[in-house]
Amino acid sequence: xxxxxxxxxxxxxxxxxxxxxxxxxxxxxxxxxxxxxxxxxxxxxxxxxxxxxxxxxxxxxxxxxxxxxxxxxxxxxxxxxxxxxxxxxxxxxxxxxxx
Length: 99
Hints:
- By secondary structure, this protein is α+β, with helices and mostly antiparallel strands.
- About 45% of the residues lie in helices and about 10% in strands.
- A two-stranded antiparallel sheet has the order 1-2.
- β1 (about 15-20) and β2 (about 20-25) form a beta hairpin.
- The longest helix has 18 residues, at about 35-55.
- The termini are far apart.
């Protein structure tokens, strides 16, 4: 939808258990300026950073499976965006990846 959040970090996310799954809410949604590619790219990199942090950050990254390292890509923006140029690419990868 060409939308973006613009400031994704752990303080802007609420996660609740909902049945067998989870309910996720993003907070601090604003009407920013018209979306640009770099706005959406920031959100992609921020989401990868959230995954990285949720799995233990730098301390546990070396021990993560290759499937996680293929997403986090050492947190290098250019490598992340090369693999996931749009949020749809990241979503599709997460929904179909083998653990």
